UniProtKB/TrEMBL annotation:
It is found in: Membrane. Residues 12-177 form the Amino acid transporter transmembrane domain. This is Amino acid transporter transmembrane domain-containing protein. The chain crosses the membrane at residues 60-85, 106-123, 129-150, 162-180. It comes from Klebsormidium nitens.
Amino acid sequence: MFSEQRLTLSGTYALMGAAAYQYYGESCSVLVTHNLATSSSVAGWKLLKLGAFEISLSQLLSALVALSSFSTISPLVFVLAELIIDMAQGTTKARASAIVERCLRTPVLGVAYAVSVVAYDVLGYVESLVGGVASMCSSLLLPGVFYYVLHRNEMGLRQRTLVAALVCVGAACAVFIGVIDVEKLRRTKAPGYLPPS
């Protein structure tokens, strides 16, 4: 079950990445909203035009992508804050008060906001770096490590080999994504850099 889920998830990621690169080619951007507006076949489609006001299909799709972030950012902040709360409480069974929990959640959101303000000009690359590395860690690397820790006494050589391969692939993907995005960030800050049109 574990291997089938990981294989399905990895295959889906690989298929989406390959399809995006096949469609957009070298103009592929780290932000899907940029691709929708500039190099997508739906970029010029108009949905509504009232005088000077107009809404294109790419704008609607970009707005839907932005709206979807409300269903991902809030849970992410909540989970990170819960980790901090659990670490702060240790083995105590009693739950922290709502005020303490809010005070612990606020810095998590504040750090995310500070990073976005500082890295505003290269936010797409920062988002790609953090999202790609975190995605590989949460979908391949950490589940493999946790599975090994929980089931190491019941695993045979074949299972240990598969889990080790999964962890190695996850680590390699995280490093690969990190190196590529750090290199892109370095290039954007180099003198004479011209952003792609």
